[in-house]
Here is the input.
Amino acid sequence: MFYLRTKGEVERDILALDFEHTHIFRPSMILGERDEDRPRERLIIAIWGVLNPLLVGPADRYRGLAGNDIAHAIAKAARHQAEKVRIYHWKEMAALLRTRCSQREPAPFKP
Here is the structure.
């Protein structure tokens, strides 16, 4: 609970700074390899991998993304700022990853 409250407070405080553009990313489960050995986390990530395709409709915001995919989505959003404030859940990040903005970017994301 502390993490969620703190995250919400940080988002609120950042929005109060009134930057020209603010992009807030809210990934659910961050998937991928870790350098640390965390057995419980590894188990949850394995379970999430099975659940991920089942999370559709309103539940798609809880789908996991690999850390490198989240980083690519953030980079694309930073290069193409149109709105003053934008909040990204899984669907919006996946949409960013499916678009190709330049030749140097990686191939489009496939959920």
Notes: The helical segments are 2-16, 39-51, 67-79, 90-98. The chain has a mean pLDDT of 86. The two ends are 29 Å apart (CA to CA).
